[in-house]
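ok so i was messing around last nite and threw this chain in just to see what happens. nothing serious, just curious
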Amino acid sequence: MSNIVLDELRQKPLQEQRTEICERKGLGHPDTICDAVMEEVSKALSMEYIKRFGSIMHHNVDKSLLVAGETEIAFGGGKVLKPMLLVFGDRATFTVGSETIPVEEITIKTTKEWIKNNLRLVDPEKHIKYQVELKRGSQALTDIFQRKEKFLGANDTSAAVGFAPLTPTEQIVRDTEFFLNDALFKSDFPETGEDIKVMGLREDDTLHLTVGMAFVDSYIDSEAKYFRLKEEVLDEIKKYVEPRVKMKVDVDLNTADRPGRGLGGLYLTVLGTSADGGDCGQVGRGNRVNGIIPLNRPTCSEAACGKNPVSHVGKIYNLLTYKIAEEVYEKVPGVKEVYVWLLSQIGRPINMPKVASAQLVLEPNTRMKDVEASVKETIQAQLDTIDKFCMELAYGKIRTC
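result:
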């Protein structure tokens, strides 16, 4: 039996507090690009290792920097002056016995496929250069993978926390970006880019959304057209949000815009992402593994994307805490809000955390003794099947960003 500690939180659930702030960085945001690409590289390497050797080898490809390029925007279509640079860093397994794994080739091929499938206007051959700085892992960490145990040892001493449920504010912030980057919306408004950020502020029963959305200059032939399209998009956002929340709704779009200042007063890009000429990106600076940046909540400091899915607790526990929290909230009556913490110890099997802790906000007529057994059973069941959870991560069945 794992070391499971429960505690009651005597506080208002977030939804009942007066203010909350939540953010989501969208598909084409430079930070999100880095997260998504490195996660795809990890999955591709995992599949290659499984195909060749029957198991996942050591890798942590969770360091990446997207260096912004240079562009010249113009009404009717600007041009790329200098391509973006995507740098891949950290560790991977390059050889097993006498067999060599083409890590660099897999990394670049996988990245180009993701870009082609997700960023409509970015040509992965022309608009981005690639610099692979992946190196071989240390002997101490690679040895963990040679032990052939059902549950590998943790490759780090690390803590993670997850929570449930999402508040309506958190849900609508996440879902609004999904809506704006959906294929149907893009077919209706091809002038909008994939680089979208949604910031939500709830004050009592009023929801304020501030949306930043890159527009694509090749579709915009004048300042007047830009502002006309902006009003249409703003109206569509309101139509989407208002019926989905039981709050007053106030939405702003591209608030730095200034009429009369020409190109300098508009949010225009050449390729639909600010990475084309305005903003760099990095792994771990974007959304948490539940798809949002929830500023009122405790969150894990680890960047999950790109870490290996079988021994790196910075990934495994990061996602597992959310799964456990959701299971507790859905299955245990009387739980109003739950926070789950897991702490690893390097070398200790991942199914045996140093501690597993749940902090519970209970319904008024519920006592800790009413829920204690069920909560502990739920946590233990997830730890007992963590090997299956790891394989779901490896095969990309669980969203990580």
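not much to say yet. The chain has three domains: 4-14+157-167+297-394, 30-144, 168-282.
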